[in-house]
Every structure is written in structure tokens, then in C-alpha cells.
Structure to design on (292 residues):
């Protein structure tokens, strides 16, 4: 009797321990709090067929899908407001679930209630210990958008060349650059660069701010790099404005400005004077400095 009771209470402790370790996984967006234990049932109902029981991306439908469903145990995510290599924020995941992934089988789950979606996010986080081990990462700061001018678009075009975006995305942004056919993702699956000319929504959002964020934070798990260490914030807006003109059929401010300029980019400016270049400084100081 006593032994049985002891064993029962041991089982009880185990259940409490497991439940609380699951329950401990939470997700927060605004004033919503998601709970992994509630998310588990929802995941079985809505997500398991693609992402798999263990969250490893090998659900029953996975063999038929291209690109493959995300492996939550690896915790590498494409759409992040955080810098490359980091976990996304809860809000990033929540938005991904709402948005769905264009040009993939991942549907938009917008019709589910907000509580359902946040519970699902909490459960997804229970598949990787990274969520326990890592501190919240820095979020990319996005300065106010600069005006859309032909100068800005033209400079963005220069950056597209200089930073070799064309090697993957192609000179006209068709996703057919010289490297395009050779690319694979972190799971050794072939992956195509985004085709801008289709004018479709990006996987990670539809607004100019999303576009800015995508190339600054990179698409982790794919060959699409992060350019945050390479591009200055004002230059990044120029690149955004140029990329919009690759979406030729899309109605946009950028396409209007380009059309008004006769459809042509300005020629590249000659090397800009660098203020810290001492050789050029005296020129601005009027006559009498002994130089012509
Ligand atoms: C029909 C298959 C399918 C179903 C059902 C499905 N997904 Fe996905 N999901 C995918 C695919 C495919 C991808 C990868 C898309 C890509 O890489 O472009 C993905 C990616 C994701 C990502 C990755 C986000 C990122 O930034 O990398 C999250 C989060 C996600 N799914 C959550 C869910 C949740 C939650 C459910 C259930 C409510 C769900 N998915 C149901 C196919 C599915
Ligand atoms: C080494 C190849 C490579 C280079 C270089 C590259 N990209 Fe990409 N890019 C990709 C791939 C591959 C994808 C598709 C990722 C996916 O679908 O998950 C992509 C996707 C994108 C997307 C769309 C992401 C989305 O949410 O759908 C944008 C925007 C983008 N790249 C911009 C750029 C810009 C701007 C540059 C240059 C500054 C650049 N890329 C350089 C390979 C590259």
C-alpha cells in the first residue's frame, strides 16, 4: 500500500515536472500571453501534417513540399527583426504565422483567434533549447524612410551592382543570376533567389520597411546574406527604392518617379569628396591658401 502510494506520488511529481516545463514556455506579443501546453493540441490539429510531431519539419506531407517545412528543432528562422544568427522575437513568429509564406505551402493562419496563434507560437518555441539558453537578441533599428527621388533610386542601382545582388537575383531581378542555379539552403535543398519582376509579396512582409529589414537581417538558413555590416542606413533606403523599380508591373511611388525621369537612372556620380580628406579641405576656405 505504502509503496504503491509512494510510486503514485512519484508519477504525480513527474507529471507536474513535465507539465510545468512545457507550461514554462510562453510567448508574449502586446498584452497576449501564449502557453505551450495549450498550443500543443492546436499544433496537432493544424501544423503536425507538415512540421511533424517532433517539430523537425518531416510531417507526412513534407516529402511532397518544396521548399520544405521549417525544422523547429534547429530554430533557424527566415523572417526576423533580429540580426542574423539570432532567434526571432515572439512577434516575428506571430507575424509569420499570420502572414503565411508566399511561394511555399505554408498558409496564412490569420483566421485563427489571436489567442490560438500566440499559444501556437509558445509551443513552437518548446522544440528547441535555444529559447531557454539565449538572451533576447538586438532588434534592427530602422530609421525613417528617406524621400523617393531619382537620385535615391539611381544610387540604389549602383549598390545593387557593387554589392553583387545581381549574381543571384540577376541584372533585372528575375532570380536568374549566374549563381542562381547552384544555390542550396542549410538543409542541402536547392533554393531559388527571389524574382522581383513577378511583383509578388515577399516572404517576410510587403512594405518598404519589410524590404529594408529583409536584406539587412538576411534570410537565415539560405544563401541570402545579411548586409547590416555593409550598408549604411541611408544607403539601405536607396537600395529599397531601387528594388521596387525591379517590380516593374507593381504600382509604386518608385515606379512613378522613375517614369517621370524618362525611365532612366542617373549616371553614377564621380567619387564623392570625403570631408576627412585633408588634400581637398583648403579648396573650401577661399582664396589666399596658396593653392589653385
Ligand atoms: C501545408 C503545410 C504546412 C502547414 C499545415 C503549416 N506549415 Fe508552417 N511552414 C510550411 C513550410 C513549407 C514552411 C517553409 C516556408 C519557406 O521556407 O519558405 C513553413 C514555415 C513555417 C515557419 C517559419 C517562419 C520563419 O521565419 O522561418 C513557422 C513559424 C511556421 N511555419 C509555423 C506554422 C504553424 C504554427 C502552423 C500551424 C498553425 C503551420 N506552420 C502549418 C508548411 C506548413
Ligand atoms: C548568394 C546569393 C544571393 C545574393 C548575393 C543576394 N541574395 Fe537575395 N536572396 C537569395 C535567395 C536564395 C533568396 C530566397 C530566400 C528564400 O526564398 O527563402 C533571396 C531573397 C531575397 C529577398 C526576398 C526575401 C523574401 O522575404 O521573400 C530580397 C528582398 C533579397 N533577396 C534582396 C537582396 C539584395 C538587396 C541583395 C544585395 C544587397 C541580395 N538579395 C543578394 C540569394 C541571394
Amino acid at each position: 500500500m505504502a509503496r504503491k502510494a509512494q510510486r503514485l506520488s512519484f508519477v504525480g511529481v513527474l507529471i507536474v515536472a513535465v507539465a510545468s516545463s512545457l507550461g514554462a514556455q510562453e510567448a508574449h506579443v502586446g498584452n497576449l500571453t501564449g502557453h505551450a501546453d495549450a498550443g500543443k493540441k492546436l499544433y496537432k490539429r493544424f501544423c503536425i501534417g507538415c512540421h511533424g510531431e517532433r517539430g523537425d519539419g518531416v510531417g507526412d506531407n513534407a516529402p511532397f513540399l518544396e521548399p520544405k517545412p521549417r525544422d523547429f528543432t534547429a530554430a533557424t528562422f527566415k523572417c526576423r527583426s533580429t540580426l542574423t544568427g539570432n532567434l526571432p522575437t515572439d512577434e516575428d513568429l506571430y507575424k509569420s504565422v499570420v502572414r503565411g509564406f508566399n511561394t511555399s505551402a505554408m498558409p496564412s493562419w490569420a483566421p485563427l483567434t489571436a489567442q490560438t496563434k500566440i499559444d501556437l507560437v509558445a509551443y513552437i518555441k518548446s522544440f528547441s533549447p535555444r529559447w531557454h539558453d539565449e538572451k533576447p537578441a538586438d532588434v534592427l533599428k530602422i530609421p525613417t524612410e528617406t524621400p523617393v527621388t531619382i537620385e535615391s533610386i539611381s544610387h540604389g542601382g549602383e549598390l545593387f551592382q557593387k554589392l553583387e545582388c545581381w549574381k543571384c537575383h540577376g541584372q533585372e531581378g528575375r532570380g536568374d543570376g549566374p549563381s542562381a542555379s547552384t544555390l542550396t539552403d542549410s538543409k542541402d535543398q536547392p533554393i531559388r533567389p527571389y524574382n522581383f519582376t513577378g511583383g509578388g509579396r515577399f516572404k517576410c512582409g510587403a512594405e518598404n520597411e519589410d524590404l529594408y529589414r529583409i536584406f539587412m537581417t538576411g534570410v537565415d538558413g539560405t544563401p541570402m546574406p545579411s548586409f547590416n555590416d555593409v550598408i549604411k542606413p541611408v544607403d539601405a533606403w536607396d537600395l529599397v527604392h531601387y528594388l521596387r523599380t525591379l517590380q516593374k508591373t507593381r504600382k509604386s511611388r518608385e515606379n512613378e518617379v522613375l517614369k517621370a525621369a524618362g525611365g532612366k537612372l542617373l549616371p553614377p556620380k564621380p567619387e564623392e569628396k570625403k570631408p576627412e580628406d585633408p588634400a581637398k579641405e583648403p579648396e573650401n576656405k577661399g582664396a589666399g591658401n596658396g593653392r589653385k
